[in-house]
Amino acid sequence: MDSQVPSVGVSAQRRGQTMTSMMSVQLSTPPPALMRMVNPLVRRVLTSRVLAARIGTVSLVQVRGRRTGKVLRIPMGLHDIDGVLTAFTRRTWRLNFTGGVPVTVVRRSERREGEAVLVEPTRGQVGAALRAALDNGASPFDLGLKIARGFEPTVLDLDTAGLSMIQFVFDGGFR
């Protein structure tokens, strides 16, 4: 007699996922209400010369809202993926980067002007970038993910987490 295996939805089977991989990589982002309380403090820390230099991947990104024109100051983790600073998110503010927009980034108390674009990824592109970030030392927490202990996610596992990717380009680079 065949062993009983939990069924996986047809769409998950088409993507090559198993129930185990679907449960092993999950989004784990802080609640928006918590971020509204914490972000004002984080903004102050990131603009402080003394404290900002000690902060790793978290940067302050300034961009104009696409509908309101209001300047948004968004703390976000930026990760070096093959020489390109990249952020991962599902928050709605990501839409402000559609089509490429001018940005100012304050990173480790250094200010740079550049451009950022919300990437329209091909299959596996976000997963490959997340895999590279993990391989470069980022923790799942840094990426807004929760990965089951002992599970080594594939590019496909990471791709199906549902994160969007924003890439930043600066004249003269920015590390």
Automatic annotation (TrEMBL):
Residues 1-21 are annotated as: Disordered. This is DUF385 domain-containing protein. It comes from Amycolatopsis carbonis.
